[in-house]
Design goal:
The structure is a homodimer of 424-residue chains. Chain A has 424 residues and is of the alpha/beta class. Chain A contains 13 helices and 18 strands. In chain A, the strands form two sheets. In chain A, strands 7, 8, 9, 10, 11, 12, 13, 14, 15, 16, 17 and 18 form a twelve-stranded mixed β-sheet that branches. In chain A, β4, α3 and β5 form a beta-alpha-beta unit. At the A-B interface, α1, α2, α5, β12 and α11 of A face α1, α2, α5, β12 and α11 of B.
């Protein structure tokens, strides 16, 4: 089994290392050794051991008779997209770790792979070393999947964990993530939630047998979360996680990525640092949780290798994305509980006025925290945060409620709102 | 794809339900529907909907031209063992949930399946709905597995959770487990650790490419654990779990099942009730955790169904158990930290004497708890528990140390000892 590998980055290097270190076990698993016959990359890096492969700066060189599987690890969109399309059209099996290409062009690649009856593996595109694609496609193949939710972006989780543990401000935690190599110099792709949304669109597709559709994913990043919110969430028995969630709700599909309060009764609340974790609920299995490294050279290479071995064994199955047409549910219809952080002037009558607004919108207040030692001073005014945990209500009602609260003369600054996710 | 199902118990009923409820999704996944052509069971149960299958009280009836896969769900050993052997020898693929048969006769069944090139699926034999067999065989196929450890017996975990949460005595917690249907009227198979050991022997085999060997598993149950131990463990930052652990250590394989202190820094410490969880460490993925229902009709049927679908897709791979000869490591060589509960008479000089014994054996005391409010009276003597958490030492040194401690005149009763498991 001969590989043609595109890329010389960290994941490709991890793959070369695993192929070398685990050569015997891999050969035993599939009955023959795996070799690398060709490697292609724009920039040669002679210092990297490419296991005796022939090197070229041309990606086209990989579509060659001495390559049995094309492994796309260059990242980016355009060149990778073209390589995947060319390989599939030439009847070459493809393994890719490229979530951006899949989120945008995955449907046509899957259609092409199905048309030519050629395997397309993308385990490594979601949640690094966690075999989540195989778990949904194969391990839970006999289930109707009801929901998938989890922590899919290690950068966000690292930042929130730092803020939670040390009370760091968002900017300081982001800076630390950048220094440790967990965040890019332009971190927006991660912290704005786009990375998690791409992964969720891929998972939603295989779980619900529907086309990949990024436009159906509601996206909110973590930039507005304050260290104070994490502290109050803890007091209420929750942790704040950047959550990705896809589920079938009233026959429509709901996919959303946003900060969320997760109950301490859910193990997901304790998944910290750069780790990823995903919970899947199905009508057979009930609820399953997978936790592991969401990124990194070796974990991602482990996922790439599982696809390669599956193809080598002649076992690969394409996802049954038969394009079931489902309506994406509107966020307005969403129902959940909410955390609200309301900065108010420290005056008599404030609480009664806040309670009136909630009552007007028929929202119950599940818990309220207002502390005498939390009083602040700014611009000659005394103010204090009032934190409210509401009962379940709809997003549209909450929008109207927040607007009314924000308009009160008593309210001193911007209200912050975080959804509460109550899943088993 | 036509099934011949042996058994009418809870798992078989769960399978019939999932086949009915999820028929469309299953057919979409494999490109054709799954039907049940034959069902066999010693005792007819006409009230059960067997999806139009032909019923017989003879298991042999399943080895028939109109059966494509034999699904063994009768439990027990002899009849199940014969059915599996007969089916494989007739070239019929087999799916089984029977860990007892696999632990005792799995090697010959795997050899027979390999010889006849017939798939043998046993995902459901370990950890119910958790797709742990597929995760090791396929998801981590490119890894050298370093260790597997986890909570594999829901009955033990339920009992320990009850004792921990409510301070219940072992007998009371066991009684409750029996009333809820989580423990058999003769609970010894679960609480003595045999069930977990069978599962561990199966997992060790596929993780380390070695034959299944129950004799290599050291087994200790949970009957000697006291609610007080759980309380002290908590104070020390641990939980007590009934742990199953297999790892390669100094080129030999170590497999053991026993109660263990698990650090609160490990999510496994928070896996409660009847749930199972397994952590796997591999040289590619790093560390992966899977948590889910370890038993129950529908979760187990979900695992059975995943094997059936894999076979129907023509994807099934047999484990590469090429019978690598490894020496089982002796428990004497084991090194770990220990928790000791030492009941001593409340007299001056006791602590110094205990410390002397530890010093003589060159064991450091990591933590000591002795509480003035823990003083007890029995048979006119005042005694008090001293709890010691030691540093790492070998099992043989600890055996000698415990013997010396037990022989002290100061020691009032039986010392209890629990191993501490420190894994990532």
């Amino acid at each position: 089994m001969r590989l043609g590998v595109a890329g010389l980055g960290t994941v490709a290097q991890g793959l070369f290392k695993l192929l070398r270190e685990n050569a015997n076990r891999i050969a035993r698993q599939i009955g023959e050794p795996i070799s690398v016959s060709r490697v292609a990359s724009r920039t040669p890096k002679p210092e990297i051991d490419i296991l005796g492969a022939e090197f070229s700066t041309s990606l086209e060189s990989l579509i060659s008779p001495d390559v049995d599987i094309v492994v796309e690890l260059i990242g980016g969109v355009d060149a990778a997209n073209k390589l995947i399309a060319d390989a599939l059209q030439s009847g070459k099996p493809v393994v890719t770790a490229n979530k951006a290409v899949l989120a945008r062009f995955g449907n046509s690649h899957i259609a092409c792979a199905n048309k030519h009856n050629v395997p397309l593996g993308f385990e490594a595109s979601v949640a690094g070393g966690i075999p989540i694609v195989a778990t949904i496609k194969d391990g839970l193949a006999g289930n109707h999947i009801d929901s998938i939710y989890g922590v899919l972006n290690g950068t966000c989780n690292f930042i929130l964990t730092e803020m939670d543990r040390h009370g760091s401000a968002f900017d300081a935690a982001l800076h630390q993530a950048q220094q440790l190599g967990y965040a890019e110099s332009d971190p927006s792709f991660d912290i704005d939630g786009v990375d998690a949304a791409q992964k969720l669109a891929i998972l939603g597709s295989i779980a619900f047998d529907q086309p990949i559709d990024m436009d159906d994913v509601y996206i909110e990043g973590i930039t507005k979360v304050d260290a104070e919110d994490l502290k109050y969430a803890r007091e209420l028995g929750y942790r704040v996680k950047h959550l990705a969630l896809a589920r079938i709700f009233n026959s429509s599909v709901e996919m959303r990525v946003h900060p969320a309060l997760v109950s301490e009764h859910n193990l997901l609340a304790f998944v910290d640092g750069v780790e990823n974790a995903i919970s899947i609920a199905g009508n057979g299995v009930g609820s399953l949780l997978l936790k592991g490294p969401g990124a990194g050279a070796r974990p991602t290479a482990s996922a790439v290798l599982s696809d390669i071995i599956e193809i080598a064994r002649g076992k690969s199955s394409l996802p049954a994305t038969t394009g079931i047409a489902r309506i994406a549910s509107s966020m307005e219809e969403l129902e959940c509980a909410y955390y609200l952080y309301i900065p108010v002037f420290d005056e008599p009558g404030v609480m009664a006025t806040l309670a009136d607004v909630f009552g007007k919108h028929r929202i119950s207040m599940e818990a309220v925290i207002q502390k005498s030692d939390a009083i602040r001073y700014s611009e000659d005014t005394r103010w204090v945060p009032v934190v409210v945990l509401t009962d379940r209500t709809s997003e549209s009602v909450m929008n109207a409620t927040e607007q009314d609260l924000q308009n009160l003369d008593y309210v001193q600054g911007q209200i912050r709102r975080i959804r509460v996710v109550e899943l088993n």
